[in-house]
Amino acid sequence: MILSDVDILRRLEDGDLVVEPLDDPDIQIQPASVDLRLGREFLEFQHANIPCIHPNAEAEVDDYVELTEVEAGGEYILHPGDFVLGTTHERVEIPDDLIAHVEGRSSLGRLAIVVHATAGLADPGYKGQITLELSNLGTAPVALTPGMRISQLTFTELKTPADRPYGAERGSKYQDQSGPQASKIQGDREFGGDQ
Fold first, then answer.
1. Does some domain include residue 183?
2. C-beta atoms surrounding 107 within 10 Å
């Protein structure tokens, strides 16, 4: 079952679902979703003189990204073909009986801005800001202003709560993240990690 605005408000009031700060519920809570705003930090991928990125080599990934913070009142220009990691302004906490789907807003989609390539899911138990995989698929640069509504979350109720939710017990590598986070795929079991 997908939560409606009534369900979302009830869960927020009960405190088991958290979206904070939720400064303007009348605008941000839609009929079946919650709009999230763009944060001020972006991880930009730099052109590098390497043949490729190896997912199991942490140093390469760290060397390939650069943090940019937009000043208050400023904007971030996303050029055609660009891919950057952004973040939501809000921090969320997803209870063990819900899954959250990260979606773009249609108004930005009509400007050719997408908010995720593949990571459109917040698992039961997830806590933190959400990293956005921002791309401009269009032919013109688009100005993104921190604080603008950039994405939306829809919530699906699970038949039973997750037995092993996302979190420290699972060694979840993005739990409690703040700001955009680069890939930590090198921590995956197939690359010698423990996850």
1. no
2. 10
Q: Phi and psi (nearest 5°) for 103? A: -130, 155
- Judge contact between 67 and 45, C-beta under 8 A: no
Q: Give this prediction's pTM.
A: 0.90
CATH code of residue 166: 2.70.40.10
How far apart CA 51 and CA 72 sit, in angstroms, is: 37
Who contacts 106 (Cβ-Cβ below 8 Å, separation ≥6)? Answer: none
Question: Measured between alpha carbons, how far is residue 57 from residues 11, 62, 63, 172, 191 in Å?
Answer: 41, 9, 10, 19, 9
Looking at the DSSP bridge assignments, the partners of residue 154 are 101
Residues listed for the chain: 195
- Domain limits for position 109: 5-47+54-178
Instruction: Give per-residue pLDDT as tens, 51-68.
Output: 777 777 665 666 778 899
pLDDT tens-digit map of 85-101: 999 999 999 999 999 99
**Spatial distance between the Cα atoms of 180 and 40, rounded to a whole number of angstroms:** 10
Region of residue 125 (left: phi > 0; alpha: psi -120 to 50; beta: else): left
Whole-angstrom Cα distance, residue 64 to residue 101? Answer: 28
Q: Is there a catalytic annotation at residue 133?
A: yes
Provide the token pair at 153. Answer: 């979350």
Selected catalytic residue, list 133, 157, 169, 190: 133
